[in-house]
Amino acid sequence: MSVAPVVGLDRETLDFTLEAIREFAARHLPDERLLELDHLDECPVDTVRLMCGEELGIQLVFVPEEYGGMGASAFDVYRVCEAMAGIDLGVATSVLATFLGTDPITVGATEEQKARWLGEVAEDGALYAYGATEPEAGSDLGSLRTKATPIMDGEVVTGYRITGRKQWISNGGVADGYTILANAPGGPTWFVVKRGAEGFTQASPEDKHGIRLSNTAALVLEDVEVGADALVGEVEGQGLWQAQQVFGYTRLNVATFGLGAGWAALDRAITYSTTRIQAGGPLSEKQGYTHKLIVPHAVRLEASRAYIEETAERIDAGEGSLNTEGAIAKYLATESANAAADASIQAMGGYGYTREYLVEKIKRDVRITTIYEGTSEIMEMTIGRDRWQQHLKTQGAYYRDAALALERLHASAPEVGADVAALGLHALGGLLEWARVGRLTRNQHILFRLGELIAYAEPAASFARRAARAAAGTLSDKAERGFDAEGLATLSRVFAREAAERVATEGMRLVVGAGGADPAHLPQLAQALRVSEIQGAQVGLIPDMDAAVAAVYRRAEHGHHA
Ligand SMILES: Cc1cc2nc3c(=O)[nH]c(=O)nc-3n(C[C@H](O)[C@H](O)[C@H](O)COP(=O)(O)OP(=O)(O)OC[C@H]3O[C@@H](n4cnc5c(N)ncnc54)[C@H](O)[C@@H]3O)c2cc1C
Fold first, then answer.
1. Distance between Cα 168 and ligand 1 center (Å)
2. Which residues are catalytic?
């Protein structure tokens, strides 16, 4: 695979920015303060403003250069979001909410509007909020009820009167500007509404399970008047399209949130396990512990990273918004992070269950990542639908070609698990074909489960490619380097086995369960799903997991820990 052209920040600026974030956190957000704010259920607005203002200037990372920002790439934003999430997901959410809020502007506003609104963010550190969700319109945004009624002067629209209610809005109670999705006569449309506008009120913050350092509030708009120039892009009816344009990117950001928070929890468990002595030795030396509570989670998080990095590079190379890839990244990273944080509590036993050790807080925080910016089930639907179409359109070539490319990679890089990742993709192609013949996706459950299996099989391919690039020395110079090439290859082999096994085993269950194969046809189905090859590929799993332990603890020794 070719290396993407260098866009965005240079390596030194990125490193400097990541270091500045860590220093800022050490000064303003030490663990004791995070715990206190979590306990008080309080958003540290002043700290968020310092971050998005002169002291840190993190907002500049998200604003394009022509409007006063640093013009960072998707890859840079991934590194920055991961770092912020590793500190506190609530604060990270507060920072990111401004950029979700200004995304409709970045995508759809006129040049003059961009200069005005993005300029406010870059220069004044204005905080924004993204107002899409409503009490009755969550996953299904099309059913939104907020209404924008034109104010007419003769034939000319001079402004709009907006009425409605928004629900669960990050920064809802603290933002300076709000992008509000409302139904205008021409269809769903984004408007910029400023705090303090008459008729615009913010409810008190929600009492949440996690991300308690992030302000989440409902918004009420009662005949709020805005000028015609508050309409983003000045053309009605572009709202859902504009929201769609950035889904790939914003979902990738939430995926990086999962990555940062998942590793923050796991790192604490890893460190703990090296000093906690039970039954005569540290927990880190007990296979029953590491191979259940540490390794599978490190493996899935790093598979997510491989997929995130590849998707960010492709976005930066101009391949479009990559919505399906964003969904795959979000699904795997956030589900893996949630499981990793849960395992981290278990790995720290009674200490993990108390507040003081922070993994309990991280677990509550990271839970949101499988819900906001589209739930995991909506991701499954998005992924399942898109790849189903690809399979039909290409008559099965979609995964066959991808598998063949991996087989070629295996020939040149035999250590990275590309052969097993290829088996997973062949099995996926076989599974989709049996689903087509049996018309099984009439069951919503089958389509959604296919989405999940795809979100394992495709990242397995990315992971093999990333490990091969690490070995060849062709990773982006801005890539994260927690694991060396040998460690990545080991983790990739473990993940490829898991992904392929899921497709084969789950695939059999789904096809048979949905009536797609009677008992007489099980051998053919098993062949299409490569069941025996995939089972055979499990040879070497336990030694690889042993080696993965060594790689994970080597990484921790080198300072990649919380
Ligand atoms: C802390 C927090 C911060 C947020 N910040 C923002 C923000 O800044 N701006 C904003 O606009 N929104 C925000 N949201 C809203 C968030 O994006 C929504 O909560 C989310 O999209 C889900 O919508 P919902 O809550 O209405 O759930 P619903 O859509 O009602 O979903 C409930 C359940 O049903 C499932 N489901 C939904 N549709 C289907 C279907 N067709 N088939 C099968 N299953 C389905 C879902 O996966 C979920 O499990 C935030 C939410 C929270 C909790």
1. 9
2. 373
Residue with CA closest to ligand 1 atom 11: 132
Q: Which residues contact 340 (CB under 8 A, 6 or more apart)?
A: 262, 263, 265, 266, 297, 298, 300, 301
Residue nearest to atom 51 of ligand 1 (CA): 168
Q: What are 223-273's pLDDT values in tens digits?
A: 999 999 999 999 999 999 999 888 888 999 999 999 999 999 999 999 999
Cα(477) to centroid(ligand 1), Å = 37
Beta strands in 245-310 (DSSP E): 277-278, 281-282
Angstrom CA distances, 3 to 6, 75, 152, 472, stand at 9, 13, 54, 12
Q: Is a pLDDT exceeding 70 seen at residue 495?
A: yes
Tokens at 182, concatenated? 């409302």
**pLDDT tens digits for 2-53?**
444 448 999 999 999 999 999 999 999 999 999 999 999 999 999 999 999 9
**Angle, in degrees to the nearest 10, between helices 239-275 and 74-87:** 50
* DSSP secondary structure letters along 452-484: HHHHHHHHHHHHHHHHHHHHHT-S-TTS--SS-
Say how far apart CA 183 and CA 155 lie, in whole Å: 20
- Retrieve residue 438's tokens: 């049996």
**317 Cβ contact list (under 8 Å, min separation 6):** 4, 5
Find the largest Cα–Cα distance for the chain.
Answer: 86
Nearest CA to ligand 1 atom 23: 138
pLDDT of residue 4: 44
Vertex 448 angle, CA 442 and 450, to 5°: 90
State both tokens at 169: 């809005």
